[in-house]
Amino acid sequence: MPGPSRLMKLDQLHGTELGTKTARVIVRDRYPATAKDVPTAVVSMQNVLESMKHELLEVGSWLNVMGYIRMAPGNADTSEDGAAKRSRRKTQQNFTFVDATMIWSAGAVRVEKYNDALTDLQRASYQAG
């Protein structure tokens, strides 16, 4: 049985164990997206497509995502040789793959206040647990 959801910032996903249930993930929290070291989550919406509203997919929308950390499709591909894999890895941006079970609007977000509040909630949760 999976454990409870944990509230996490986007940049905390990278080292998260596969299968971990997550909540409230901002897909990309900096602009431009081409900037170096932008925390990124690739979110599969397969399970939530029927309930998705187009407004959620507009550039600049802030989202809350609940889902599971999974291995990205194609990561298990063993057909490439080692040099090709290393070359492809260097050109790809680091990301975490999330299999969404729920997505909803975060509304208007003040990034600094959001990050401070989230850090406080995580600290309180850690101290309580």
Can you tell me about this structure?
The protein has 129 residues and is α/β, with parallel strands linked by helices. It has a single domain, classed as Beta Barrel (OB fold (Dihydrolipoamide Acetyltransferase, E2P)), CATH 2.40.50.140. The chain is built from two helices and five strands. The chain has a five-stranded mixed beta sheet. The chain starts with 5 loop residues before the first strand and ends with a helix.
- What is the mean predicted local confidence, pLDDT? 76
Element string (H = helix, E = strand) = EEEEHEH
Level-2 CATH architecture: Beta Barrel
Overall shape: globular
The first-to-last residue Cα distance is: 19 Å
Beta-strand fraction estimate? 15-25%
Can you identify the CATH class?
Mainly Beta
Number of strands: 5
Provide the structure class: alpha/beta
The name of the CATH topology is OB fold (Dihydrolipoamide Acetyltransferase, E2P)
The total count of helices amounts to 2
The count of domains is: 1
Quick recap of the structure?
This protein has 129 residues and is of the alpha/beta class. It has two helices and five strands; from the N terminus they run ββββαβα.
Which terms would index this structure?
129 residues, alpha/beta, OB fold (Dihydrolipoamide Acetyltransferase, E2P), five-stranded mixed beta sheet, 21% strand
Annotate the secondary structure layout:
Layout: E1 6-7, E2 21-23, E3 41-44, E4 63-70, H1 82-91, E5 96-105, H2 111-128
Parallel strand pairs: 1-2, 3-5
Antiparallel strand pairs: 2-4, 4-5
